[in-house]
Write a structure and sequence with these properties.
Blueprint: H1 2-18, H2 22-42, H3 44-55, H4 65-90, H5 93-114, H6 120-142, H7 144-148, E1 154-156, E2 159-169, E3 172-180, E4 187-192, E5 195-201, H8 211-223, E6 229-233, H9 239-245, E7 250-255, H10 259-267, E8 275-279, H11 282-287, E9 293-298, H12 313-322, E10 323-335, H13 340-351, E11 356-360, E12 368-375, H14 391-402, E13 404-406, H15 425-443
Parallel strand pairs: 6-7, 6-9, 7-8, 9-10
Antiparallel strand pairs: 1-2, 2-3, 3-4, 4-5, 10-12, 11-12, 11-13
Helix pairs in contact: 1-2, 1-5, 1-6, 3-4, 5-6, 8-9, 8-14, 12-13, 13-15
Length: about 450
């Protein structure tokens, strides 16, 4: 019952918890979800030992504690296996937690019915509570989408939000959401664990309306003369690789989540003409790279921002071998002026391999995207053709590309590049992630940020 009650009230507290300090909010969220259930369940072992000891034979020597802890350990092993191979890949966190409450209720009901030491009154009370917990857990698990409001159109921030599909995967919960204002054409969002991956036109799903998509493509084309081959690390909705392929470039794409393939074909009109998909970790692919590309684009994000193991000088050393002598590496990064030290570590790590590193975007912004252009040989950008860029974002793209700083000149560096042995990026970037999460809560209904 405690598990189900905690789960039922969590959606109503989530928005308030997300707006406060990240550490405090996370701690309070854990208290709401896990406080009472863990307190109650952690008390079971000593109680069971006491009950077992009351009926144990003297020759057992351990008062039955060995059997209790053996069963507890086996239960932990089973729980890990269930979470790893069933709950995380195929169920949302909310639904998994609800079904856990139902399972505990079934176990409690079976124990109450089979227990010989319970009085009739205690048996009835215990069975009733267990039955309530079981039925409530099953109800929340089965009708989770309805309870969270995912099946109805939500009106929030003056917009109409409709969930098209959600797809739990081992690498995050994917959500496709249509957003309409009534004044412009509807937009289609792709979220991964609440992080916005891209914004496309719902009526023309292959067309990206996100500034970063067009900034990446524009930088790639303007920084390399007549590119023929490109490597894109991170698939998203497929807008970046399709944009490059439409210009006659052969594109390899690496992504760790194969579930994206079917999802973006269904909802974002992804076509793989001139595009080859590779499923696996980007670092592993980069380490084995033998044939260099004219363009390498790093557009990698997970549920907590940018994966820190892909931002070290060792990774950029391997990526340097993937880039031709006159080619470009372009990195898309979330940015906040609250975490500048973390970003300088990444600039320094890139600069270890690439002598020319330029940063495009507003470094004074509270939250924004910035773009790092790294080259073995610096060259001025060609004139950028903005005709393929949607009018609503063309001004922003031009503003970003007109705001440039050179690492080591306009951006002084310390000798503290992120490395495999010394990487404080996650620590230094934490304030920026707090700003990012608060920004997301301010633009996306909280119901869609719950997994």
């Amino acid at each position: 019952v405690a598990i189900v009650v905690s789960l039922a009230i969590y959606p109503f507290t989530f928005l308030h918890l997300a707006k406060i300090n990240l550490v405090t909010g996370s701690f309070l969220a854990c208290l709401v979800l896990l406080g009472i259930p863990l307190l109650a369940m952690s008390a079971m072992n000593p109680l069971l030992v006491a009950l077992k000891g009351a009926v144990a034979r003297p020759e057992t020597g351990d008062a039955g504690s060995g059997w209790v802890f053996f069963v507890s350990t086996m239960g932990s092993v089973a729980g890990v296996l269930f979470a790893t191979f069933i709950a995380i890949p195929y169920l949302t966190n909310f639904r998994s937690f609800a079904l856990l409450g139902a399972a505990v209720g079934v176990a409690a009901l079976a124990s109450a019915l089979a227990g010989r030491s319970l009085s009739p009154t205690a048996r009835v009370h215990t069975s009733a509570m267990a039955l309530v917990g079981t039925l409530a857990g099953l109800a929340l698990g089965i009708w989770a989408d309805d309870y969270l409001g995912w099946k109805k159109t939500l009106v929030s921030f003056g917009l109409r939000w409709t969930m098209v599909e959600h797809y739990p995967t081992p690498f995050g919960s994917l959500k496709v959401i249509d957003v309409a204002s009534g004044q412009t054409s509807p937009q289609r969002f792709l979220l991964n664990d609440g992080i916005l991956q891209n914004i496309n036109d719902a009526e023309e799903p292959s067309r990206s309306l996100a500034v970063f998509t067009h900034a990446l493509e524009a930088l790639a084309i303007a920084s390399v003369s007549s590119p023929r081959r490109a490597l894109v690390l991170g698939l998203g909705t497929g807008a970046v690789p399709m944009g490059l392929a439409a210009r006659g470039i052969d594109v390899d794409v690496v992504d760790i989540n194969p579930a994206l393939d079917g999802l973006i074909r269904r909802h974002f009109a992804f076509k793989d003409q001139r595009v080859t998909l590779h499923w696996g970790d980007a670092r592993t692919f980069a380490n084995a790279c033998t044939t260099p590309y004219d363009i390498v684009i790093m557009d990698l994000f997970n549920s907590d921002g940018m994966p820190e193991h892909l931002l070290t000088e060792e990774v950029f050393h391997h990526l340097g071998r993937c880039v031709t002598a006159k080619g470009s590496l372009i990195v898309n990064a979330f940015y906040s002026n609250a975490g500048t030290e973390g970003y300088r570590m990444i600039f320094a790590a890139i600069n270890k391999t690439f002598p020319s590193v330029r940063v495009f975007g507003d470094l004074s912004a509270a939250t924004s995207n910035i773009f790092v252009l790294a080259q073995h040989l610096a060259r001025p950008l060609d004139e950028i053709d903005i005709s393929p860029i949607p009018q609503r974002v063309s001004y922003d793209v031009r503003s970003i590309l007109a705001t440039v700083r050179t690492v080591g000149v306009d951006l002084p560096l310390k000798d503290d590049a992120a490395s495999d042995e010394h990487n404080r990026f996650a620590v230094n970037i934490a304030p920026a992630l707090v700003a990012l999460r608060r920004h997301l809560v301010s633009i996306i209904p909280s119901q869609y940020l719950i997994n």
